[in-house]
């Protein structure tokens, strides 16, 4: 999973994809944060299962943000979150 994210990030950088690049950077940063937290607790780096949990949490956050923007009459920001 890590390798696939790193490859996608590299290709987004080369293509100067302004939509995928920030998203992939956020994903990579979240995984890195989990690795640091695990290291501090004496655990190994984030497993594939933990990475999937991180991704699910990030998706849920984006959906909640989009709903909040829609409720606040900001459809352009809601569309950007999706």
Structure description:
This protein is an all-alpha fold and about 80 residues long. It has one domain (about 1-80): Hypothetical Protein Yqey, Chain: A, domain1. It has helices spanning about 1-15, 20-40, 50-70, 75-80. The longest helix has 24 residues, at about 50-70.
Quote the average pLDDT: 93
Radius of gyration: 15 Å
If helices are DSSP runs of H or I spanning 4 or more residues, what is the number of helices? 4
* Envelope shape: flat
Secondary-structure class: mainly alpha
- CATH topology description: Hypothetical Protein Yqey, Chain: A, domain1
| CATH arch. level architecture | Orthogonal Bundle
Key traits:
80% helix, Hypothetical Protein Yqey, Chain: A, domain1, 82 residues, single chain
List the topology elements:
Layout: H1 2-15, H2 20-40, H3 48-71, H4 75-81
Helix pairs in contact: 1-2, 2-3, 3-4
Explain briefly what this protein structure is.
This protein has 82 residues and is mainly α. Helices cover 80% and strands 0% of the residues.
């Amino acid at each position: 999973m890590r390798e696939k994210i790193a490859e996608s990030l590299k290709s987004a950088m080369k293509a100067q994809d302004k939509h995928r690049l920030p998203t992939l950077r956020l994903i990579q940063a979240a995984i890195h944060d989990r690795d640091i937290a695990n290291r501090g607790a004496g655990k190994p780096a984030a497993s594939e299962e933990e990475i999937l949990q991180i991704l699910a949490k990030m998706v849920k956050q984006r959906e909640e943000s989009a709903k909040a923007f829609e409720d606040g009459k900001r459809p352009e920001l809601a569309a950007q979150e999706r």
